[in-house]
Amino acid sequence: MLDKVLLCDGETCSTGVKELRKALQQKAIHSNGNHHKSNGHTKGRKSRQPKKDVVDLMTLLSHCAQAVATDDRVSAIELLKQLRRHSSVNGDANQRLAHYFSDGLEARLAGTGSQIYQSFTIMPVASTDILKAYQLYLAACPFKKISDFFSNQTILDAAQKVNTVHIIDFGIYYGFQWPCLIQRLSKQPGGAPKLRITGIDLPQPGFRPAERIEDTGVRLADYARTFKVPFEFKAIAARWESVKVEELNIKRDELLVVNSLYRFKTVMDESVVVESPRDIVLKTIRKMNPDVFIHGVVNGSYNMPFFVTRFREAVFHFSAIFDMLEINVPKEDADRQVLEKAVFAREAINAISCEGLDRVERPETYKKWQARNRRAGFKQLPINPEIMKKAREKVRSCYHKDFIIDEDNGWLLQGWKGRILFALSTWRPSYRVQ
């Protein structure tokens, strides 16, 4: 199953993902077609569900957030009751979003946001379910697939005629990005270089804090043996800001790549800690003198200090994601529910219900990251036109017409129906330290 999902067929896509995408597109048309025709906006057409429900859910959420913000518990509880009656994890996109956002508001009101968020970690989803949800995500939308292609192609372009490639991956998680790179490195003219990966991620609770990272290393070593790529893996389970350059065993004669896709949003910023952990990590990366730093960010504004503003921005962001899934995945798909709950609902609930150090979901816009990276001593590299061309072709030929892929000021942008959700860029130190 791993092979079917993670390995390449050509440059950007596995056979399993291609097959699933075609099946989803057919099923989504039949499953959601009638729903979309009757869901809202055609005058004079009768529907079993009142047309105003969609508007009411968003209005109810807004009013409930206002009540929670002012500690008007009576109004908040009554509004939550109404939201519960009209929302469902099995409903349309707005009903699902309202269900999970209600969970967040209820947790904030009760002061249990941190416990609920931690429960996602204590009772993790099975790896097989995560893999199936990951495959669904790859098939339904181009966001992850294009991100991996952008990163891997950048590494391959830089790895011509080198003996060793050392990738330091901040936020490696399951390492799903790397089997395809290993496969493509094995086809390099003149033979594959040695690949070193240092996988960094937060420690897990329990007696084996590095267990998941170590398991990732074992999986990747198996792929490296299969494709005859010399391989070395090091697992580091630690808070990112505590990682020191000295423990990374960087060698002068290797191509050094630092990779971090969409996980920097969970590193604290200066609004929580005076000496910003984000800036500490960026300065550590700067000290490494990488040949290239590949940075993918969630383009979000739901990191505001004021709750109601943050809540509204979170609604805008996650509405786009839930709508994208609604259009591209059948309502009854079980893997869609895993994806919505284990990934997106988890993030939204944390942003809504937690404060201080407990609120770990803190995205910034790509323009703010651009300024932050420059302050840390990086200069931005231009996007490779060939990578941009292939990414555009892939999105336009394989995915729904409402997906966005664009370029702005050195960033590759991805989104849905006018909202930019993700951004990618490449950097290197503005000057080299010998």
From TrEMBL:
The segment annotated Leucine repeat I (LRI) runs over: 55-115
Q: What is this protein called?
A: GRAS family transcription factor
Pfam families in alphabetical order: GRAS
| Stretches for region SAW | 353-428
Residue segments, region Leucine repeat II (LRII): 215-247
The UniProt annotation puts the region (VHIID) at 134-199
The reply to whether Transcription figures as a keyword in the UniProt entry is yes
Motif VHIID, which positions?
165-169
Give the UniProt keywords, A-Z: Transcription, Transcription regulation
Q: What is the organism of origin for this protein?
A: Rhynchospora pubera
PROSITE patterns referenced in this protein's UniProt entry, alphabetically: GRAS
User: Member of which family?
Assistant: Belongs to the GRAS family.
